[in-house]
Amino acid sequence: MVIDSHCHLDLLAEKKDINQVLLEAAEAQVAAIVVPGINEQNWMAVNQLANEHAMVSFALGFHPMFLDKVGAGSIGRLEQRIAESISNSKLVAVGECGLDLYQGRENERQQKSLLIEQIRIANQHQLPVILHCRKAHQDLIALLKQNPPLNGGVIHGFSGSYQQAMDYVNLGLKIGVGGVITYQRAQKTRSTIATLPLESLLLETDAPDMPLCGYQGRPNEPKMVKMVLSSLIMLRSENKQTVTSQLLKNSKSTFKFCD
Ligand SMILES: [Zn+2]
């Protein structure tokens, strides 16, 4: 069994029949799928997907790329929504939140304060965080050292150096391994993932984005997490069984899934 720890099923639903997607995921031995929130407009959709499908769990948060949708009262509404949903075992994290400096630093301060608020809310409700990071590892690591998430979480879709990854691991976070490792050219990330502690890794697709090598141009799907696992097994020194069972264990302990 495998768990897709990061899948935007609500966005995939705009392109594909979700019942079929989930059926194929189940056939590919996907046991659970975590669907992150990105802004207030999709919280309802991710919550509903989790209510309707046994294998789907959800998270609520503000993605740093959609700051135009964040205004006065947004954090208060996140706080309220999480307080209302906390008894729902399908709510497994706060996120997707983080830093994205790909387009520059013009809204850096707003991104950082929004992230700090979301870490505070996660800590208050004993939830892990799902973190997004692009062109911002040094900033994010510094921010997390100042504002540590107390219940773990994941740096999703990681690509970067061993040292950056270990900085996150030392903060109690997991490293989200996605389709990037299926590309030969991703040498730095592949060798990082090959050598990190096996206990620190989670599998993900980030569907419908981040197509695997050979599947560019089509929407990515949760069933592909099985192929991310196959690539990971080829990179690692441990045997197939050890990698598979440890990765399952890692997801379960991060998101407090029950057996
Ligand atoms: Zn995402």
From TrEMBL:
Signal peptide: none annotated. A divalent metal cation 2 binds at residues 132, 156. The keyword RNA-binding does not apply. Coiled coil: none annotated. One of its GO terms (molecular function) is DNA nuclease activity. Its EC number is 3.1.21.-. A divalent metal cation 1 binds at residues 6, 8, 96, 206. Keywords: Hydrolase, Metal-binding. The keyword Metal-binding applies. One of its GO terms (cellular component) is cytosol. Belongs to the metallo-dependent hydrolases superfamily. TatD-type hydrolase family. This is Putative deoxyribonuclease YjjV. It comes from Vibrio thalassae.
